[in-house]
């Protein structure tokens, strides 16, 4: 479940990413005022993993849900402020980043694996950095890692360069940190050992990279809250 939008005083629109038919939007009529029912507002917290039943109509209109069940209920994400800030930020990022409505089973599996890992582990201060760089694999703009002795990374072409590019780029101490991030899995993220300044710089670089490669992508509004919370993480 990516995010919800209030629709009238009693209803919600829920935007979900599904394994079979990709990105879909559902109208949840009366869910905000209903005291009982098979479908409840509490099931639609951001990035909750759901099993849903609906009649898919490929007509561009809002769909109607028949059944909803929470699968793999999170044990720690709702109760830990750092993890909750992460899912809010990443949900907003995914809302802007996933633009195609077609199914992408590999992306779905990545998301499922990532948030189950987040719920089960505590060393999560750089989880969002590893998540974002790996997400680019499924969105089609993962960086080209060659040449290995490059001094610059061109944000616009997605390539490393030996000579300074005219386009937007990073250089200096940011380059080896950015390169180290490539290919990391979530468990390896603890080896980055970034201080608050380096973490902010790398996150800003990744967001700019997304802005350059995804038409209409904008910096998540929840970024400031995320930075404030993780400023306390050494």
Q: Which fold does the CATH topology of the largest domain refer to?
A: de novo design (two linked rop proteins)
Going across the major beta sheet, what is the strand order? 1-2-3
- Tally of alpha and pi helices: 6
Please provide the count of β strands: 8
Strand content: 15-25%
Order of helices and strands: EEEEEHHHEEEHHH
- For the record, give the distance between the C-alpha atoms at the N and C termini, rounded to a whole number: 31 Å
Instruction: Name the CATH superfamily classification of the largest domain.
Output: Recombination protein O, C-terminal domain
**Largest sheet entry:** 3 strands, antiparallel
Structural class: alpha+beta
Low-confidence parts: none
Return the domain count.
2
List the helices and strands and how they pair.
Layout: E1 3-7, E2 11-18, E3 22-28, E4 50-54, E5 65-70, H1 81-97, H2 105-120, H3 127-139, E6 152-154, E7 159-161, E8 169-171, H4 174-181, H5 196-213, H6 223-230
Helix pairs in contact: 1-6, 2-3, 3-5
Describe the structure concisely for a colleague.
This protein is 34% helix and 17% strand. It is α+β, with helices and mostly antiparallel strands and 234 residues long.
